[in-house]
Amino acid sequence: MISKVSKPVYIVENPSIATILPQEILCEIFSHLREHPVHFTRVAQVCRAWNFAADHHLFWRQLAKTLLLPDPKPRAYKYKTYKSIVSKCWGRFCTLCHSKRTRNNGYQIRPVLVDMVKIDKIDFESSKWFKVVLREDKKSGDVQNVQKERSSELSTVNVVQGAVKRKELPSRFLKHLLCCRCNAIYCRYIREEEIKKRRKLLSVKLGEFGLTIPAKHEPCDQFILYGEGDPASIARELFNTMMLKNISLEKVSLNKSIGIDDINDNNIDFNNNNNNNNTKKHDENINLKYCGEKTCRFMFPYFIPEQETRANIHIRSLTYLAESLNRIMVLPNVGNSRMNCCAKYPFEFYYDLDKMKEMFPRVKFMTQQTFKDWTKELLIKPDTLHTWFIEDGRNDSYSIRDHNKMAVEPGVHYGKKILYKLCVDQFDLNIIDYLEFHTGIGYVKDFEYKMFNFFTENLQDIKSPVILIRNRSRRQMFPLIEEPIPFAPHIMKQAIEIRNKLQPYYCIHWRMEQGRLEKMPKCAEKLIETINHLKTTEGINNIYLATDYPISGGTSASDTFYYIKKEHRLAIQMLNSTFDLKTWVSLNAFKEFREDKNYNSEFKGSGIHGILDKLICIQSDYFISGPKDCCRIRSTYTKLIGEARKNLIDKGDKRLRNVITRWTRL
């Protein structure tokens, strides 16, 4: 009978000492690992003993406490250890600074493949958003302090020399989860290292020709900053240009030594000096042509936030700042109810520039196109300071930049792609510096006046001919100027024609953007009931409708009104089938512009017709707006209409029968 043979059991006579170490010693060894969860998960795969030691290491507890995570529950089914609690929140925190993403801060945590050798060189605690501090720099500062206290300097010198002679370790890549701040600091360090390498390579190529890197040379700067071009060809071209200049200088010196043309000998000058003098005279004449002075000083707010009603307020406040800085105010283009340098149409398309000059008699104004021509005609491109106004506490993607108080700090240096996206590359400017101004989060009494003084103190001594302003702050930053900028004559003329044609009339302003979708048909029913009731009491039949619904096709008249649903269409159909509604489309407003193809984009969304609706509502005999759940209640657009109507009634305009009436709530 054949007996069943069992599997052999292999007994390890000499097991590795690493597998039989006590848990206390393993935990002490694992404490020297780099503080990244992935290292602990890797050593946990060696054996059961290492698995238990790595999973129950104090690192997980400290990380959970740092992230303010709840304690584990040993009797629970899933989350019994601190490691399981951390793994549950994986992807919601930065593995370098341990910043946690929440709904309030809006941090963006993204996986990034980083070089661990370079990460170890950066001191993220001391580094700022725009300044990278290396651990070597911090250590060198500590060494200097120790040298003053200690008498023995030989040991410290040997340590420093050893650190200098030490070879750089090969790259080791690991995927980290980084927040915006850590990612920006790491990318900035990588970019600075690349710039150093390219600068060193270019200096070597120039050294072969006996040259050094010049202070201002566009091909050299483009290669150092962006890696564009070949360093060998750049060095060769620079050498050839220097040789040509030397040959011309030798010719001049020979003429001087021989004594040719002794009468005009005093008028002979070096070509470089002549060229520089001619360039300066040319630019001075250009400045006299555009500014009336030999030197020009501009302030150009090339980006204004929000739509026309709020942008009108911002541009008034910025004009007040330009007056205090004694600079020429460059007015950005307009289009689609916005103000920025990317817009297609000049400032006069929306506003009356002559009346604006009367509002600010001590300020000089210049249009964007004229400013662009000035930059093109200059031979020496003007030095420019780029400023960025940031409103803190908005819980957006820039929240990591937030400051508790007013602050100014070095800003991000924009590359070609960002300048192209912002349309700043259309101007020939030499942007030499970037600054960020922060409003601060906390409440400050008399904020507008203090912010205005803060800006004036930091900008009044700037010597750059041009100050660019990118304003991202929707907050009122400077003292409010109540009087709005008057609109262009062609807009006022069209509004008066429609008013005279419709009188007497109701104006209904229905901004559907934030209304509850399911209640749109009910809102239309209540509006119909309200108008029928007013017809019997007021005796008015004509109705003008101002709305963000795309009555002309295309997109809505609001940038945040993204989707037009069947409920919105049904509500408008109910009004059209009940009343003979008048709109800027049915009245054929701005016929001459709509027939011009250059203005097609202006009438497909928000634009000049929004200004026309506002003027017609202000002049209407009876003004109606929507209640809660039917439309957006808090609107600067509606508030401005109500304030303008109240002022007309106070001045004695008896034609207006109310300030604002909300139709019946649901």
TrEMBL record:
The transmembrane residues are: none
Span of domain F-box: 15-63
The alphabetized UniProt keywords are: Carbohydrate metabolism, Endoplasmic reticulum, Fucose metabolism, Transferase
Localization in the cell: Endoplasmic reticulum
Chief place of localization: endoplasmic reticulum
**Protein's pathway:** Protein modification; protein glycosylation
Please give the biological process terms from Gene Ontology that the record holds: fucose metabolic process
Q: Pfam families annotated for this entry?
A: F-box-like, O-FucT
Q: SMART domains from the xrefs? A: FBOX (SM00256)
A GO molecular function assigned to this protein is: peptide-O-fucosyltransferase activity
Q: Name the PANTHER family on file.
A: GDP-FUCOSE PROTEIN O-FUCOSYLTRANSFERASE 2
What family is this?
A: Belongs to the glycosyltransferase 68 family.
Q: What is this protein called?
A: GDP-fucose protein O-fucosyltransferase 2
